[in-house]
Amino acid sequence: MNIRRAVESDFAAMRPIFQAVVAPGATYVFAPDTNEHDAYAYWFGPGIASYIAEDDGRIVGMYKLVANQRDLGSHVANASFMVDPSYSGQGAGRQMGQHCLREAKKAGYLAMQFNFVVSTNKAAVSLWQKLGFAIVGTLPKAFSHKSLGYVDAYVMHRFLDDIQA
């Protein structure tokens, strides 16, 4: 698997993954009918560093790395990940997660925080815990799950001092 910085021309292949991930209404706050402009801005807006994971030349996942907050909170990174559902379980999430932690460290971040991990997204919660994240907060009934109704979301955090850039 090759992970590289995304370029704008990658969006044509990223968009179907975005749509497939948000359509079930189970893991992301985006509406299933999020328009192309908003999806594009999420990955290629100002200050966003996006990366894609390719397998045999096919984009199978992507992530973005940003500062979690501006100014006095900018030493903590934030990231978002999406894997093509047809590629689920093949290690793309783990490889992108490890890559992202290294990129965050290289960029000078001291920690990484996920602000909104849907509690019922067991695969994501488990992966982030395996990569050293801890649940540091629970947002009660913060996510309107399409089939389960209101469910909790987690705030997850880890320091980057053990990451080799």
Write up what this structure looks like:
The longest helix is centred in the middle third of the chain and has 15 residues, at 92-106. With 165 residues, the protein is of the alpha+beta class. The model has no long low-confidence stretch (mean pLDDT 96). A hairpin with a 3-residue loop joins strand 6 and strand 7. It has a seven-stranded mixed β-sheet with strand order 1-2-3-4-5-7-6. It contains four helices and seven strands; from the N terminus they run βααβββαβαββ. It is globular. The chain is 27% helix and 36% strand.
Secondary structure blueprint with pairings:
Blueprint: E1 2-5, H1 11-22, H2 36-44, E2 49-55, E3 58-67, E4 76-83, H3 92-106, E5 111-118, H4 122-130, E6 134-145, E7 149-159
Parallel strand pairs: 4-5
Antiparallel strand pairs: 1-2, 2-3, 3-4, 5-7, 6-7
- Report, as a whole number of angstroms, the end-to-end distance: 19 Å
Level of helix content? 25-40%
Number of strands: 7
Radius of gyration, CA atoms, in whole angstroms: 15 Å
Estimate what percentage of residues fall within beta strands: 35-45%
> Helix tally?
4
Strand order of the largest sheet: 1-2-3-4-5-7-6
Summing up helix and strand content along with how strands pair, one would put the structural category as alpha+beta
Q: Any idea what the shape is?
A: globular
Mean pLDDT: 96
The major beta sheet can be summarized as: 7 strands, mixed
Q: What is the string of helix and strand elements?
A: EHHEEEHEHEE
Query: Uncertain segments of ≥5 residues (pLDDT<50)?
Result: none
Structure described in brief:
This protein is an alpha+beta fold and 165 residues long. Helices cover 27% and strands 36% of the residues.
